[in-house]
Automatic annotation (TrEMBL):
Pfam families with a match to the protein in the record: Tautomerase_2
Name of the protein: Tautomerase family protein
Database matches in PANTHER family: TAUTOMERASE YOLI-RELATED
SUPFAM superfamilies, per database record: Tautomerase/MIF
Length: 130
């Protein structure tokens, strides 16, 4: 049920590499949160130099022109230990599948109440109702 939004620089990743990113994100869900493989909701957006601003050295990093921003909306119920494992899995899988350097992956997790997720039909299977 997490939603990935990956913001990548235009022209730095091929269509095959973007597809491999989706696979990396999916595998990181399995590794970090023990979720099923079919729990796949990913948006990948390309941005030109006037639409993606990532400081090359902030946080003592050495980012390249392939640096990406990944935002993941997750249920607020996940413990910190699982979130750490999940973050590590994202970086590991992106490195293995796409060759993204660890310093090139900026991640933000956004926890929200489970009842705010709807898979379709306008209802949430997690909303207990009033």
């Amino acid at each position: 049920m997490p939603l990935f939004q990956a913001h990548v620089p235009t022209g730095r990743y091929t269509a095959q590499q973007r597809t491999a990113m989706v696979e990396a994100f999916t595998e990181s869900l399995v590794d970090g949160f023990a979720l099923p493989v079919d729990d796949r909701f990913v948006v990948i957006s390309e941005h030109g130099p006037d639409g993606l601003f990532i400081h090359p050295t902030y946080g003592d990093m050495k980012r390249s022109d392939r640096a990406i921003i990944v935002t993941v909306v997750i249920p607020e119920t996940r413990p910190r230990s699982e979130k750490r494992k999940f973050l590590e899995a994202i970086v590991k899988r992106l490195g293995e599948k796409v060759g993204v350097a660890p310093d090139d992956v900026f991640i933000t997790l956004i926890p929200i109440p489970r009842e705010n997720f709807s898979f379709g039909r306008g209802f949430s299977p997690f909303d207990p109702g009033d």
